[in-house]
Amino acid sequence: MDPVSFLAELVSIPSPSGEEDAVAEHLTRRMKALGFQAHRDGVGNVVGTIGDPEARREIVLLGHMDTVPGLIPVRRHGGRLYGRGAVDAKGPLAAFVLAAARAAPGLQQTRARVIGAVGEETDSRGARHLAGTMRPPSWAIIGEPSGWEGITLGYKGVLTVNYRQVQPAGHSANGRPGSAEQAVCFWNQLRACADERNGSRAGRFNTLDPALLSFRTFGDGLNEGAEMRIAVRLPPGVDTAALKQNLQAWCDGARLSFPNSDPPFQAEKNTSAVRALLRAIRAEGGRPRFKLKTGTSDMNIVGPAWGCPIVAYGPGDSSLDHTPNEHIEIAEFRRSVGVLARALQTL
Predict the structure, then answer these.
(1) pLDDT at res. 173
(2) Does 209 qualify as catalytic in the annotation?
(3) Domains of the chain by range and CATH?
(4) CA–CA separation, 90 and 12 (whole Å)
(5) How far apart are CA 90 and CA 85, in angstroms?
(6) Residue 343 above 90 pLDDT?
């Protein structure tokens, strides 16, 4: 199976979060054709196993099938493959499938389990299901773009904040702050708190970073209101409970909810999984480097639950995630398959 054609097929099937069925059925068929035992689990994840089915040693390669919305015409041009999900994260997932199939004949008393999870871009329901139901593997690799020479060891956490303020309507000349002004004051307090905490801390992995995702005002002539959705990126060591208490103290009667809260996670550097990838990258002619990411991934969910050696790896430039110019370098994609196949055979 031509690797680039395999990836292009996946990218050509739209799969925004919640609409993964078509790509899941396609991936299941393709994995079976490559020698996997493949099925969908109770929440819709695609699970494919290859290697020694009786082995106690298991390597899990966890990617995700869903993407953010936005249709990008799939095309090859200038050594690149364009399309939604090419980088985030069908490129890494395709590399997992192809590498495991290539490495399978050399796996000794080991099996590889490749998983295409659902919902990573929204609530990570696929990973949460795995964390709660699956026996911890011997090693895990999370499929996210790191560049073929990069190894990601950690991700910041996230706290999602929904703010809603409603009050009786009034004239703007009466001197009373309106709902929009109160919402802005709340946001400014959060921003000032982050700035004060961050101070001169080096590196964005160590900073508290609020992002205002949406802002809306509304009214019917009798009542007026404002709504905001905020994501706060959490560094290691932050006291999330104390942060929530501060937010409640600043909201001045507004209603707050916290629909999502995932802690930061940083893996150990000196593990067998890291060493296997270091050797494989060097064997493919690369110069490996470590990365810490300011976003989140399914590593934040399964890392603490499984407690096994874990890293994130995959082809692609993560600065292209979610952009209208999302594309992957074909040569890089091919190299990542080689790196992963080598790593699997040496774990």
Answers:
(1) 63
(2) no
(3) 3-155+264-346 (3.40.630.10), 157-262 (3.30.70.360)
(4) 10
(5) 5
(6) yes
Radius of gyration of the chain (CA): 22
Cα–chain center distance at 37: 25
Residue 238, φ and ψ in degrees, nearest 5: -75, 145
Residue 172 has pLDDT above 80, yes or no: no
Taking CA 96 as the corner, what is the angle to CA 92 and CA 99, rounded to the nearest 5 degrees?
130
| 120 is annotated as an active-site residue | yes
- φ and ψ at 56, to 5 degrees? -85, -25
Q: How many other CB atoms are found less than 10 A from the CB of residue 272?
A: 13
Instruction: Spot the catalytic one: 20, 58, 88, 120.
Output: 120
Find the catalytic residue in 58, 66, 144, 329: 66
How far is Cα 188 from Cα 182, in angstroms, rounded to an integer?
10
For the question of whether the overall pTM of this predicted structure is more than 0.70, the answer is yes
If you write DSSP's letter for every residue of 73-140 in order, what string do you get? --EEETTEEESTTTTTTHHHHHHHHHHHHHHGGG--SEEEEEEEES-TTTT-HHHHHHHHHSPP-SEE
